[in-house]
Amino acid sequence: MTKQICIYLISMLFVLQLAHAQEQTPSKVQIDLADGEFVLYKNGQPYTVRGAGLNTTDENKIRALREAGGNTFRTWSTNDAVTHLALAQKYGLMVLMGIDLQKELHHFDYNDDVAVAEQFEWVKAQILAYKDHPNLLGWIVANEPNLLFNDDGSLADVNPKVYDAINDIIQFIHEVDPYHPVTYSFAGVNEGHIKTALARTPSVDFLSVQVYGDVDTVNTAISDLNLNLPFMVTEFGSTGHWETPSTSWGREIEEPSGLKADRLANRLASVFADNQTNQNIGHFVFYWGQKQERTPTWYGLFDKNGNADARIDEMTKFWSGKYPQNHAPRVSEILLNGSTAITNLNALVGSEMNAIVSFQEHDNDLVEVEWKVSQEVDVRSQGGAFEKEPDTLNVQFGETTLTEAPEGYQVGVSFVAPEVAGQYRLFVYIYDDKGKVGTANFPFLVSIK
Q1: Residue 360: enclosing H or E segment and its boundaries?
Q2: What is the DSSP letter of 288?
Q3: 3-state secondary structure of 387
Q4: Pairing of strands 352-360, 330-336
Q5: Distance (Å, rounded) from C-alpha 428 to C-alpha 352?
Q6: Backbone torsions φ then ψ of 436, nearest 5 degrees
Q7: With bands split at pLDDT 50, 70 and 90, how would you rate the model's confidence at 10?
C-alpha cells in the first residue's frame, strides 16, 4: 500500500468520525458559583467528578471503574478517543479528553512559529472531531506543560510562548464548543508557574494540578494562591518516586501495595472528603491501568494481567461508601536478609539470600505467590514518558513458605544472588484467586566483594 493511499484512508476515517460526532447531541457542561462554592453542572444538574486517569481501551478496566463508583475518566491524548467515548457511553461515564500537546521537556521549540502553527491546526481537528459527543465532559489541552528541569534537577521556567500557544487553543475551543470547559494541568502547585501561565491564559475555565506526596497540602496551597478559580486534581495517588527515600546508589524505594493503600485512604479522607476550599470540583486518581515508571508496580492500580491491588479497594470505599466484596491482599513489609531497603543491602555475587513478606488476606482466600528479580531501569524517563521495563532474570527460587503471623501471614523464599555485579530489584506478587493482587519490591546491590 502506498503512502498516499494510507494518508487518504486515514483522512477518510477521520472525516467519518467527524460526521458521526456531528450527529450527536453534546452534554452541556458548565461551572457556576452556588452559595460561595464552585459547582460543576452537567445538563443543569450538579456533577461531582469521581475520576481516574487511564489510557487503556480494555473494556474490563473501564467497567471496573464504573463498578468501583467512578463516574469519569481522563486521557492524555485523543489516540483512542473513538473507543474511549464509545465505552464511556456504554458504561455511563464521562470523559475529560486530553490533547497531547508537545512539551519543551521533550525538546519541542515554541519559538518555531511553523511548528507551533502546525500543532495548532492538528489540535483544531481533534476538537472538531469529538466536541459534540454526549459523553465528553471537557478538554484538558496540555499535560504538565510547565515541567522542565535545570541542570541541577530543580524546576525551570518554560518559554512563556508555551502558554500563548495554549491560550490560542482555549480561545478556539470557546469559539466552536460552547458546552465544554477547558483546562490544562500543572506539575505541582508552583505559584510562579501558575501565575505566569494564568496571566497568558485568562479565559481558562478551571485550574488543574497534579500532586503526589504534596497532595496532603494541596488545599492550603491552592488557597494561598488567592485565585477566584475552581480547580481539579487531575493526578494524585502514590507518593512519587522523586519524593521517596532512595538507596545510597540512587534507586528509589517503593512502598508495598498495602501501605500505599493505607496512605491513599488517609489522603482521600483528609483532602477530598469535602470541598475545603469551596474551589475543588473533582479528582482523578492515577493510574487506572499498569505502566512502567521506575518499576512496573509503582503507579498502576492493576498489574499486567489486570489484577487490582488494594488501592482500588480504597477508591471503591471512598466513591461508593463501602468496600468491594473481595479485598486485595494487603502487603505491608518486605525484608531481604532480615533488613529493610533503607539499610542499603549489598550482597556478594552467588550468595544465598532470604526474603520475608508480611501481608493480610481479609477474605481468607487461597493465595499464589510469584517472585521475580530484574536489573534496575537502564534509562530513567522524565515526565511520565515511555520507560523500558527491564527483563526478568532467570533466578532459581526455593520453595515458598507460608506461615501465620500476629497480624496476618508471612511468606518466605530463598534464592541465589545473581552472578554478575550490579543493581537489582526483587519483586513479589501475592495473588488471591479472585482477580486481586498485593505487591512489594526491594532494591539491592550485588558486588564481587
Answers
A1: strand 352-360
A2: S
A3: coil
A4: antiparallel
A5: 17
A6: -120, 160
A7: very low
Q: Around Cβ 191, how many Cβ atoms within 10 Å?
A: 11
- Residue 242, C-alpha cell as written in the block: 522523586
Residue 151 has what pLDDT? 84
pLDDT band at 449 (very low <50, low <70, confident <90, very high): confident
Give every CB contact of residue 211 below 8 A, 6+ residues apart in sequence. 188, 189, 218, 233, 235, 236
Furthest-apart CA atoms within the chain: distance in Å: 70
CA atoms within 13 A on the CB side of 39: 13
Q: Quick one: pLDDT band at residue 210, thresholds 50, 70, 90?
A: very high
Taking the C-alpha atoms of residue 226 and residue 207, their distance in angstroms, rounded to an integer, is 12
Q: How far apart are the first and last CA of the chain?
A: 59
Portion of the chain with pLDDT greater than 70, in percent: 95
- Which segments of 201-309 does DSSP mark as H helices, in order? 218-225, 257-267
Mean pLDDT calculated for residue range 4-27: 55
Q: Which three cell numbers stand for residue 179?
A: 458546552
Residue 62 and residue 42: Cα distance in Å, rounded?
21
For 447, the grid coordinates are 558486588
At 370, the amino acid letter reads E
Q: Which three cell numbers stand for residue 152?
A: 541541577
Residue 143 has pLDDT above 90, yes or no: yes
β-strand pairing of 29-34 with 207-210: unpaired
Residue 336 has phi, psi (to 5 degrees) of -130, 125
Residue 339, helix vs strand vs coil: strand
The answer to whether 252 touches 29, Cβ cutoff 8 Å, is no
pLDDT > 90? residue 23: no
Q: What type of residue sits at position 45?
A: Q
H-helix segments, 156-309: 161-176, 191-200, 218-225, 257-267
Contact yes or no for 168/174 (Cβ under 8 A): no
Distance CA 217, CA 298 (A): 22
Distance CA 53, CA 288 (A): 6
Q: What is the pLDDT of residue 9?
A: 47
Q: Flag whether pLDDT at 253 surpasses 50.
A: yes
> What cell does 445 get?
546491590
How far apart are the C-alpha atoms of 262 and 130, rounded to whole Å?
Answer: 38
Tell the residue number behind the cell numbers 512496573, with chain if given: 296
Q: What is the pLDDT of residue 275?
A: 77
Helix (H/G/I), strand (E/B), else coil: 51: strand
